[in-house]
Amino acid sequence: MSSVMISFLRLFFGAILYWVLAFLLFMAIRYNGLEQEMIFYSDETFIFPTDAFYEVAIVLGITTGVLYAVIEIVAEKVTNHLALGLTILLKSSLYFILMVFLLSKSFLLIEQQGDIDLPNEGNWWQTNGFFWNAIIFFIVASTVFQLIRIAIDRFGQGNFLSILIGKYKRPKEEEHVLMFLDLKDSTAIAEKLGHLNYSKFIQDCFTDLDRVLNKYDAKVYQYVGDEAVVFWNIKNGFKNNNCILLFNAFEKKLAKKKKYYQKKYDFEPIFKAGIHFGKLTVVEVGNTKKELAFHGDVINTASRIQNLCNGFNRNLLVSESVLNKLNISESHYELMSEDIELRGKEERLKIYAI
């Protein structure tokens, strides 16, 4: 399954769950403590059990979630290069039309259950108080959902919940696989492209990296200039050789877009990587700008392994401890050195090229 499909499915099911809960909350606020609702229309009184409105909320939530996810995915592609204000205006218009449509269908459902004729013809929504209450609630709920998505994008998939519940308020020791990715010949490329085009070049490269992360259960710890630090927990990092397959997938993605990079920048991006794993400390830092920080020797070691790539003329180097965790044949790796002394470390490591 492609990374794009995985992202869509996460948004799809997340949106459905969120909007079902949101509309149930709306109905709970509206009908809390009531067993029935009386509707006065055309000199008649119609009585509905409030359970019927909760059923409507579930149908509304599922339908809204499906359409919301589709609109978000389409809007991200169509409005990718539009100003933020114009994007918000366009999406808001679509959501307004969506709400008119959904509430019209909901009234039809209520009509069928109660065998009545509600005033829902033509521009019924312009003077309907329930509709505008629902619109206000929808705007608030939609804003909350967008803020959650922004927070998830900011902190990374899975990290948002950890920060929300305060998991890393105190330092916590964990074991992770770390990959340091760095652009080859970055200085020369930056000098020829200039700062603006070089920034666009790096932006395109990391966008392509993002597109393969989900497929291999990887997360980005941070971007630093032309370098990205990718990490896994131990289980996901070595499952199916994910830490190696991610790098291969990234290389293939860049190779597939070789013509694009050559035409736009006159350069083909080539990355080098070093992988190591071990225990490190994870802690939430900062007040005005919160983020998760990794501390530990494994970080320095992974970075220094990556720095050896140029000297060995290899794109991917791993430590012996990583190699021992991988399920690969001898033909797929090569011992580069049995006695590498990393700068600032007394420990000597065996380094392998994959």
UniProtKB/TrEMBL annotation:
PROSITE patterns per record: GUANYLATE_CYCLASE_2 (PS50125)
Domain Guanylate cyclase as annotated: residue spans: 177-306
E.C. code: 4.6.1.-
Domain of life: Bacteria
Gene3D superfamilies reported for this sequence: Nucleotide cyclase (3.30.70.1230)
Keywords on record: Lyase, Membrane, Transmembrane, Transmembrane helix
Pfam families, per the entry: Guanylate_cyc
Segments traversing the membrane: 12-32, 52-71, 83-110, 130-152
Keyword Transmembrane among UniProt keywords: yes
A molecular function (GO) term: lyase activity
Protein name: Adenylate/guanylate cyclase domain-containing protein
Organism of provenance: Winogradskyella litorisediminis
